[in-house]
Amino acid sequence: MPKIKSALAGAHFMNGDVACAEGAIAAGCRFFAGYPITPATEIAEHLSQRMPELGGIYVQMEDEIASMAAVIGASYSGLKAMTATSGPGFSLMQENIGLAVMTEAPCVVVDVMRGGPSTGQPTLPGQQDVMQAKWGSHGDYGIIALTPSSVQEMFDLTVEAFNLSEAYRVPTLLMADEIVAHMWEKVVIPPPDKIKIVNRKKPDVPPENYVPFMPDDDLVPPMACFGEGYHFHATGLTHNEYGYPQTSSSEVQSRLVKRLCEKIQMNSDKIIKVEEVMLKDADVVVVAYGIVARAALSAIRKAREKGVKAGLLRLITLWPFPEKSVTRVAEQAKAIVVPEMNCGQLVREVERAAKETPVVFLSKLGEEPHTPMEILEGIRRCS
Amino acid sequence: MVQEMMHPFSRYLRAQMMPHIWCAGCGNGVALNCFVHALDELQVDLDKLVVVSGIGCIGRSAGYTNVDSFHTTHGRALAFATGVKLANPELEVVVISGDGDLFAIGGNHFIHAARRNIGVKVLCANNFNYGMTGGQQGPTTPLESITTTSPYGNIEHPFNLVHLAAASGATYVARWTTLHVRRLTQSIKKMLQKEGFCFVEVLSPCPEIFGRYNKMRSGLEMMEWFKKASVVESFSDPSKAEITAERIVVGEFVDIERLSYEKLLHEKISKINEKAMEGVS
Description:
By secondary structure, chain A is α/β, with parallel strands linked by helices.
């Protein structure tokens, strides 16, 4: 049994990767499988030291495909499980992220975004994987993705990611960027009894009455695990509520895939988090996320000093997309500014939700995120 | 009064999943039958058994076995099984999959699972081709065999699976054909009782697809090939265990003791915790 304190309660100075690893531990994660990759490696390094101290498992697999498969295996064996990677590894994981979606395996995948495509710029930040987070695996599905803007949020949102994945039986993605992951900041870790922990629903029926993929009203089925005597089957094939393959039934395909999408969509008001700064009277609203949102905050303050009524809508949840929040601010704003470290990804969702309100996109690639002055210039163009 | 008869092995199989998908003359049913016999003879605790399969004809075995079972993506059964065994070492984890799944798309996972010596037991049905997709050439297709993607004869050298398993670090390695049902069952029993990574290959006739193109149109003809060509050479050099039209070397090739990965890991965890306790007191 673990004898070392699981959560390092108190104030610490640490980098984002370590904060993420500690967040996983605080959330109850006891299985990590991964493969080294910049700029996410420190998560694996830290957990290779911490997991054994807690009686948990750290295993380095032969690649990211295997890492993701092992995470699903551990999740089905009853442990909270995680992997961490960056762009190239995230691409390899898409296959089994789809398997986790299809078999409804709770798990957390951290993608510390670097510059892409391909090997790209391993040590530099990016926000180029945010559409891959939603659409990366083939087929239709709902997924949850969160994005931290600070080292504190690397901790907080990792805990949140585990809670959401357990609640909705869906892989939950933490879409960080290289700067947030490598930056050192103060992190306050609450005592364990002050951290909200959600665990997956367990069946409350005897094995002979257990129907493994029969959802409750929230569209999420209770989950038995291996070794508990339920003798259930799970498959990546289209399956009925008993878990048995139904590869030629349109009805079963439609029922299953729609539920996998709807269990996220129907619960999106409970899932979605945004931060609203000075939005009440804002004429120009900056919609930003990740490290870029920090520059955006500085930019709207500077704009206010110059008499421009600017506000910030910071997206904490990327998927499901906070459509209602964007539509609401767009109704009163004259224009929306979207700075992203890519060639225009989430801005398309913003444009869709903003309807008639004009949207200005600020693209930046490479070493540095947008400076406050660059975003301020964008605000000025709209006002 | 009519008494309802239950097959003595019905508790091992999921009746709801029947009929199975396998063709007449296919050897997969024989392989599954031997596996079930081994479970019965050993009285394996079915609550603690997990069967994992990849994609392919034999990959349906997980669904047919009435225990906790999981049907993974193509090639990933061993990586998934590694997660299961590490998360709960008390579970008996068996992978039943095919040659294409385990050695082409899943080849990397196979050699690393064997190298780590993770305590997963592998039963591989080798039918020399990709049966489910209609008979394409694969990593075990014999030279000059005709398949739907080697219509002029296969020019790729096939893997020798027992040699690969032995070289990669498996603690138990055997090869039989579906003709050798007793010895196959014995080997499955043996691997279920061993520690570490174990591998049993069973040559399985695929008359409907592979045989059709290679002058063995019926299951019987393929079994006759097994009968005529098989030679038992137990504990001979696995690198010389060939499979040709004239000669199929079968037998046990490796039976060694080596601490499993999960045992080493959990011993390490205990030691780290003892040390931490000393620090506390």
